[in-house]
């Protein structure tokens, strides 16, 4: 749960309010848990920041995009995190190893939104710059 610029993870480690995760000066834009609940991914300031759970300690940033990250989506099984960016790429990250798995490049200009289908077989990305929505098979 996000409250202002602080995160509280659920379930709490103890009976208090939970673990407070500071995001410095940025407001969180989106959040996602890894399948094993070991990591919390936060879209903060156009970057993906990874926190370790249950303690909420900063682990790393997922690096690879050259532009601002605008959207993220998890596969239904939580094993992959997809990110879309103003650099016109979509990247797939392994949520356990925290490594880049693959990259797709689009000719649509900067990307604004991203979705993965409930069965995990199809992804969609939208570009307001080109007024397009592109779907592709993840298989």
Automatic annotation (TrEMBL):
- Give the source's domain of life in one word: Bacteria
The record's section on PROSITE patterns has: WD_REPEATS_2 (PS50082), WD_REPEATS_REGION (PS50294)
Q: Where are the WD repeats?
A: 62-94
- Cross-referenced InterPro entries, in alphabetical order? Quinoprotein_ADH-like_sf (IPR011047), WD40/YVTN_repeat-like_dom_sf (IPR015943), WD40_rpt (IPR001680)
The protein's UniProt keywords, in alphabetical order, are: Repeat, WD repeat
The family database entries (SMART domains) matched by this protein are listed as:
WD40
Name the UniProt record assigns to this protein: WD40 repeat domain-containing protein
Q: Which organism is it from?
A: Gemmata algarum
